[in-house]
Amino acid sequence: MSTAHVTGRTGTFNTFTWNSSSTWYYTTHTQRPQPQAIHPLTGPIFGVITILMVVFGAPANIVSFMYFMKKSGSNASTTIYRLMNMVDLFICLLLVPIGINYFNPHRKETPY
User: Fold this and answer.
1) What is the DSSP letter of 20?
2) Residue 61 burial by Cβ neighbours in a 10 Å radius (0-12, 13-18, 19+)
3) Whole-angstrom distance, CA of residue 90 vs CA of residue 13
């Protein structure tokens, strides 16, 4: 029995197997790309950027939401702005655990 391997650009490789009955068997295998190490300061830099986004973004959204709440009239555009501020504030608050995790010393230093 003989075997030939052909590797493609996408990380797949094909196996052609020749057995004793003169038949070729074709099998496709997929390899996962190997993660590459990144610089150890990348995590803390992203952590600082994330925390700054929360520190400036959350109060700005709260002030903006208060402005649209005090604005007289309840037309569609004011309601949309209020909803946008609430969603943006929620996103800013969701960034807190992500920013904290960037400072975790046990975090893997790979992009995956």
Assistant:
1) T
2) buried
3) 44
- Hey, what's the torsion of the CAs at 49, 54, 59, 63, to 10 degrees? 90
110 token code pair: 């790979």
Give the neighbor-by-neighbor strand order of the sheet with 2-7.
Answer: 2-7, 12-18, 24-30
Q: How many CB atoms lie within 10 A of CB 42?
A: 12
What token pair was written down for 98?
């992500």
User: pLDDT confidence of 50, banded at 50, 70, 90?
Assistant: very high
Token pair belonging to 101: 């995790």
Q: What is the pTM of this model?
A: 0.58
Tokens standing for residue 82 = 């209020």
Report the sign of the C-alpha dihedral through residues 20, 22, 25, 31, in that order.
Answer: positive
How far apart are the C-alpha atoms of 107 and 99, rounded to whole Å? 12
- Between 59 and 17, where is the model more confident? 59
Cα(101)–Cα(95) distance, rounded to whole angstroms?
10
